[in-house]
Amino acid sequence: MEPFRWRRALFLGLVSYAASLAGLVFDTFVPVLLQAGHPLWHNTTGLHIPTVGFALAPSFAFFIMTWDNLINLFIHPWAGVRSDQTWTRWGRRKPWILVGVPIAAIGLIAIPCAPTLPGVLLAILVTNLGRALFVPPMVAWLGDLFPAAQRSQANAAFGLVSGVAAILALIASGMLFERVGRAAPFVAVALVTVLLAGLGVLYIREPLPTNAPAQTPSRVWDTLRRMLATRPQHWRLLLVALFLSAGATSIVDTGGSSFAVFTLGMRLGDAAALRVVGVVTFLLCAVPSALLATRIGRRQTVALGLLTVTLT
């Protein structure tokens, strides 16, 4: 096995950050823009911009924020399996990225520019659809380019790059929102996403296929059935744990800015910068968690992290 290449891992981590960059800004700004102006938040908002939002009730606004999860529930597994079977002269992941990234970028730019609520909802759907198409193939690059024994180290490199990039993105997006306008962070994130994805398409060389496409599951449900049938059947408990932890994380990520703005009275730009605290914590734990996973195992490390989150 070839030695671990930190340079490739760091570059791939930077490129793959395009998969989460749009979600970071989307989850921070969109919930507040949808709810701002609703009577429930009257005189408690720290926003100081005209026409701050669409005055949606929190229940409806956060239902809209679940659309990406509902789409991902069906599109993510399908796109991942199909990209496994997509072999072209450009690779198997790149065609999906070339299709999904422009769709997501167009939708992201349209969100703050749409003058009506139906227009915003359509832009949100387009953004979610585009991200659902390109995120699974882009994330799959980790498994394509690194053997199993090196993936903990690769994840550490990804964590370092993603943490630094997230800090810069949150601070910059908050400043752009307050000083330039509500569209500025969305446009900037769309352009950076296209740039990062373009670097990946140009410079990442995907490995040649080692197995015939017929040897891989042809449908999502076939993959799930094979995974659940694997012995020992600890996969079921692992899936439940991942489901619960992802749900809790999603609630905090999506509702954090609303709490900061409407309850604490912060400006939305400052609320975006406040999320840096969580990113710094993630960044500080990236390398230690990878080293711990190498020593005691990934499953044990994940269990320890979930227990720590539960207790705190």
Structural features, described:
The protein has 312 residues and is mainly alpha-helical. It has one domain (18-206, 218-311). It is built from 14 helices and no strands. The chain starts with 5 loop residues before the first helix and ends with a helix.
Write the layout of secondary structure elements.
Layout: H1 6-16, H2 18-35, H3 58-64, H4 67-84, H5 94-113, H6 117-139, H7 141-145, H8 151-179, H9 184-203, H10 220-229, H11 235-263, H12 268-274, H13 276-296, H14 298-311
One letter per element, helices H and strands E, the order comes to HHHHHHHHHHHHHH
Number of helices: 14
- Give the uncertain stretches in residue-range form: none
What structural class do the secondary elements suggest?
mainly alpha
Strand segment count: 0
Label this structure with key terms.
14 helices; mainly alpha; 312 residues
Produce a short descriptive summary.
This protein has 14 helices and no strands. The chain is mostly helical. The termini are far apart.
